[in-house]
Specification:
It contains five helices and no strands. With 111 residues, the protein is mostly helical.
């Protein structure tokens, strides 16, 4: 009976160590995600005003191109083209920053 208690206890110790490793991994992942989000936010801030506004309204605020057109006094086609150009420019900015030691593939596939 004493051996079975030790086995259970040893099993719990190993389980706790695995949980600690998982928590550490989760913290690193969270920190990396935070850093990536800050990086993307910085790059969005570097977009030309008209691109940044349309990109933010459409991608982040879920406005339709028709709603954006009404708000900005432009046609929906202009909103669409500015959004596409904003995405292209954003990818370029992210790649430029990431070329100094980052992971471009993660950003590129998300847009």
């Amino acid at each position: 009976m004493k051996n079975s208690k030790n086995v259970r206890f040893d099993g719990l110790e190993n389980h706790a160590a695995m949980l600690n490793l998982q928590e550490e991994s989760d913290l690193l992942e969270h920190s990396e995600k935070e850093r990536l989000l800050e990086h993307i936010h910085d790059c969005i801030g570097q977009l030309p005003d008209r691109y940044r506004i349309v990109f933010t309204l459409h991608a982040l605020e879920d406005y339709t191109h028709e709603e954006i057109a009404i708000e900005l006094g432009i046609v929906a086609g202009t909103s669409r083209s500015q959004y596409l150009r904003a995405k292209q420019k954003l990818i370029e900015l992210i790649q430029k920053k990431q070329s100094y030691g980052g992971q471009v593939e993660r950003f590129h596939s998300g847009f």
